[in-house]
Design a protein that fits this description.
The chain has 13 helices and 9 strands. By secondary structure, the chain is α/β, with parallel strands linked by helices. It has a domain of about 170 residues: NAD(P)-binding Rossmann-like Domain (Rossmann fold, 3-Layer(aba) Sandwich), CATH 3.40.50.720. It has a 7-stranded parallel sheet with strand order 3-2-1-4-5-6-8, with helices on both faces. A two-stranded parallel sheet has the order 7-9. Helix 1 links the parallel strand 1 and strand 2. Helix 9 packs across helix 13 and helix 10 packs antiparallel against helix 11. The longest helix has 14 residues. It is globular and about 55 Å long.
């Protein structure tokens, strides 16, 4: 059977949807902290099981009968490694034969603070001896598209990425890649650098917002500290604001750019254009 952690999250749900295109629901296990959120999947025949990263006693029982596991990285930055280690330990102790992990683009030498826990998790998986795939995902285009409406209201799109090129792809693209690897990959270990086909700068992103909205929008680059302050003033918790601002500033160095085309080859089609994702976000 194939199991996906974080199945009630934005990426996890899309992975389950992609798997349902090719896999019998009875062979799928959707793992989530709150199974009630996946009642509709249970009605379709998917096995829904409680799986709480912070409660290790829920992990091994939920993996009963699972051969292949997709570990979607926790959303709790700063607590990820112990959470992931608990999952890896449970997988090692049960029948799991193969684990795919959603890491970050160029994890080995990615200078973002966000990358540290991904590197540590990759090392933990390697140490476990489990056959594995590291799905080193680039940025979701949605990370920027969610700010587009506010940019229209204010006429300014803010960031700290300068002219750094960002090879964004949609969540659905990364979900399709994860589903493909989970079902079709051999037992050989592999590392996949996954990114969108067409890169953009934030200046280009702001220009596209203006074009779609028919209103003037310009990109304003801020120092990392200033951008962090803006995010905090908008109501984001300080740690999240710090993470986003630092990641954006590192993008100026090309950290989120990759033109290898591995993602489109894996999913068998071009990745979703960032303009398409932006258009969809603005059209609701």
């Amino acid at each position: 059977m194939y199991a996906t952690t974080g199945a009630s999250g934005q990426l996890g749900r899309l992975v389950i949807d992609a798997l349902l295109n090719t896999v019998d629901p009875a062979q799928l296990v959707a793992l989530a902290r709150d199974p009630a959120k996946l009642a509709d999947l249970a009605e379709r025949g998917v096995k829904v099981r409680r799986f709480d990263y912070d409660r290790p006693e829920t992990l091994a029982p939920a993996l009963a009968g699972v051969n292949r596991l997709l570990l979607i990285s926790s959303s709790e930055v700063g607590s990820r490694l112990p959470q992931h280690q608990a999952v890896i330990d449970a997988a090692k102790a049960t029948s799991v034969e193969y684990i795919a992990y959603t890491s970050i683009l160029h994890a080995t030498n990615n200078p973002m603070n966000l990358a540290a826990e991904h590197r540590e998790t990759e090392a933990a998986i390697e140490a476990s001896g489990l056959a594995h795939a590291f799905l080193r995902n680039g940025w979701y285009t949605e990370n920027y598209a969610m700010s587009a409406a506010s940019a229209i209201d204010h006429g300014i799109f803010l960031g700290s990425a300068q002219d750094g090129r960002i090879s964004g792809a949609s969540r659905a693209d990364y979900a399709a890649a994860a589903a493909t690897v989970l079902v079709t990959a051999s037992s050989e270990n592999q590392t996949l650098e996954l990114a969108g086909d067409d890169a953009f700068t934030l200046t280009q992103f702001a220009e596209a917002i203006a074009e779609i909205a028919g209103k003037p929008v310009t990109y304003q680059n801020l120092l990392e500290a200033d951008y962090r302050g803006v995010l905090e003033s908008a109501g984001l918790p300080a740690p999240i604001a710090e993470m986003l601002a630092e990641s954006d500033a590192k993008a100026a160095q090309g950290t989120l750019h990759d033109d290898g085309g591995a993602l489109s080859r894996l999913i068998g089609r071009p990745t979703t254009s960032w303009r398409t994702t932006l258009q969809a976000a603005l059209n609701g």
